[in-house]
Amino acid sequence: MKNIPRIFVGDNIDAGIKIPLSRETLHYLTRVMRTRECLVFGGGNEFVATVSDDDKNLVVGDKTPHIDPSNDITLMFSPIKHTDDLINMATQMGIVCFVPVITARTVAHHINWDRMQKIATEAAEQSNRNSVPKILEPVKFSDLDLSDIVFADERAAHGADASNDFDTKKILVGPEGGFSDEEFIALDAAGARGVSLGKTILRAETAAIVALAKIIK
Fold it and tell me: 132 near 95, Cβ under 8 Å?
């Protein structure tokens, strides 16, 4: 169903229900896209839908055969200046969950997380997903269980060994300034595994996408 608008309507969706239609969504469908039909999705499913005759609801029709291309990987990351870009790109790559992590060198402490969730929703609509990743509450690095994660290891740019062969569901990416020496010690001591980002120093948002690309099967 190419070129039909896709709209996230929440995780509780089924054929035959009516979903209240906001003025913003009504304007987008009927004025911008010039259609009364769309695809609605949530909870891993996708359905066809139409605008009701009174313009007040979306009437959900049949379920489509489209299979959700999302994966089950969680991205743990330090909030950065371009957190919006990171959220957008990682959502397009199919991750299921974001966990903001406050590290020693985290400098972006005033992120509008409601806006970040909206960006994730829009990226999911655009990227043909049937689900929107959740953004959890920020946690401190010291509170993380580091024993079963892979982390973006910028030390590889300075000659340290880092692998590219992992089977994991959790990835950790540091801030613009990288992990502190103490955090590297904690990661190594816990048995966390570093993934190589290559021989160049990458921006934090780029590092997240490179790490994801090496992990996603």
Answer: no
pTM for the full predicted model: 0.90
The angle subtended at Cα 178 by Cα 197 and Cα 174, nearest 5°, is 75
168 close to 150: Cβ distance less than 8 angstroms: yes
Taking CA atoms, 93 is separated from 52, 99, 104, in Å, by 34, 16, 27
Q: What is the dihedral of CA 73, 122, 89, 134, to 10 degrees?
A: -30
Query: How many other CB atoms are there within 10 angstroms of residue 9's CB atom?
Result: 20
Distance of CA 125 to the CA centre of its chain: 12
| Distance of alpha carbon 208 from alpha carbon 195, whole angstroms | 11
**pLDDT one-digit tens code per residue, 44-79:** 999 999 999 999 999 999 999 999 999 999 999 999
How far apart are the C-alpha atoms of 64 and 158, rounded to whole Å? 49
Q: What residue ranges define each of the domains in the chain, with the CATH number in brackets? A: 6-63 (2.40.240.20), 74-215 (3.40.1280.10)
